[in-house]
Design goal:
- This protein has two domains: 6-120, Response regulator (Rossmann fold, 3-Layer(aba) Sandwich); 126-251, Arc Repressor Mutant, subunit A.
- Helix content is 38%, strand content 19%.
- It is built from nine helices and twelve strands.
- The strands form three sheets. The chain has a five-stranded parallel β-sheet with strand order 2-1-3-4-5, with helices on both faces.
- A hairpin with a 2-residue loop joins β6 (126-128) and β7 (131-134).
- α1 crosses α5 (104-120).
- The longest helix is centred in the middle third of the chain and has 17 residues, at 104-120.
């Protein structure tokens, strides 16, 4: 039997949030709460959720959460019960929308419908080429070498591994890993890409995290590595440590 789905409920404190949280919990969900879009993004960066329920009509929140995690389900409450408002909500990134007044049991039913297909499609491990992540154990391997990653490095690698060979924009990764975008002056993403690369390539393995100039980053392996899932360096056949250097912030790309 699959574990219960996790729903992040974004709503200001009050009766509506209490009623929805109780109804979702009674419906079998694990429920987290956040008071604002910023809180929701921080919550999603720190833990995984299958769906977000936005009780306030906020199209920008839909867009920002969708940017942070393209796979997450979003149920939003439209501002008015008109076709144009429902279309605007769905266009902003929501998968489903309700309008007030609505019954809490209908929200629960829609959350079940949305998360059912997501849980059915989940796998216990994320894997690509010679990398695999066991989310439950918070363990990462490259070939038969276990990597010692920090929580932030693990979140960054997980975001890249969720959509291998797809370019992830700087904003998408910042929102998905840290929960906010500190602006173009910050190089925190570049620094952590550098940290992650050094650990992934510590034994001389071929590069997987590549920079796409002007666009972002992509997890991409060589054709041989994609087909075989291993290389001489990651199977122990010719493992060797090579001298590493700590790049400057400009080099951590």
């Amino acid at each position: 039997m699959p574990p219960p789905a996790t729903v992040l409920l974004v709503a200001p404190p009050g009766r509506e949030r209490d009623v929805l949280a109780a109804a979702l919990t009674a419906g079998g969900f694990r429920v987290g709460t956040a008071e604002s879009t910023a809180g929701a993004l921080l919550g999603l960066a720190g833990r995984s959720a299958h769906a977000v329920v936005l009780s306030a009509p906020d199209l920008d929140a839909c867009r920002r959460i969708r940017d942070a995690d393209p796979r997450i389900g979003i149920i939003a409450v439209a501002s008015r019960d008109t076709v144009d408002d429902r279309i605007a909500t769905l266009t902003a990134g929501a998968d489903d929308c309700l309008t007030r007044p609505y019954a809490a049991r209908e929200m629960v039913a829609r959350a079940h419908a949305l998360t059912r297909r997501m849980i059915a499609g989940e796998t216990d491990e994320l894997a690509y080429a010679d990398i695999r992540i066991d989310p439950d154990a918070h363990a990462v391997w490259r070939g038969d070498r276990r990597l010692d990653l920090t929580a932030t490095e693990l979140r960054l690698l997980t975001r890249l591994l969720e959509r291998p060979e797809a370019v992830r924009t700087r904003r998408e990764l910042l929102l998905g890993v840290w929960g906010y975008d500190p602006g173009p002056a910050s190089n925190c993403l570049g620094v952590y890409i550098g940290y992650l690369r050094r650990k992934l390539e510590l034994a001389g393995e071929p590069r997987l995290v590549h920079t796409v100039r002007g666009a972002g980053y992509v997890l991409r392996a060589t054709e041989e590595l994609r087909k075989n899932g291993s290389s001489a360096l990651t199977t122990g056949a010719d493992r060797r440590l090579i001298p590493q250097f700590c790049p400057s912030s400009e080099g951590a790309r």
